[in-house]
Please model this.
Amino acid sequence: MSAIDNLASELAKLPGIGRKTALRLTYHLLKQSPEQSRRLAEALTSLSERVHPCERCFNLTEGELCSICSDPRRDAALICVVEEASDISAIERAGEFRGLYHVLGGRLSPLDGIGPESLHIEDLLRRVAATEIREVILATNPSLAGEATALYVQRQLASRPVTVTRIARGLPVGGDLEYADGVTIAQALAARRTM
Ligand SMILES: [Zn+2]
Model:
């Protein structure tokens, strides 16, 4: 495979990038200075080398604990459960939530072979057992799979002395938390209900 085809086919694997855009980007990169290309390559390499999941919440971090887990001003008795680390930035943008997070790493999807053991559910149960948690807010996406995941986690937590809440339905059904605006997210969190 030629160098051009090689890069174009790698770029085409990215979300939202079709074959045509991938080729356009490749030709654009060819026009850049070798120095600029080297910086891009280095940025990509250091991304995969330096960024890894937080030991406690599975948010992305370059240290052992993420910036949220290591912030003493956050309410450690309140955990917001999300599907992906990118959901955290969406909720943080809303600026209302002062607790900690737990990233599941996806949602239950039996047809795709994603069962509870593929997600960080056991880690959540261990966290709830090991630390004083007052409330767990289930902020999985308002999709079928997101609802099924919330229900599953709620059942796992049912016997524990913790309040389990689900974010309100202000979010569009089938929508993605990541793309919701801050006001909608803040309202959905404020109007959460006990499961
Ligand atoms: Zn963390």
User: Anything to note?
Assistant: The chain has a mean pLDDT of 92. Strands lie at 52-53, 60-61, 75-82, 99-103, 135-138, 163-166, 193-194.
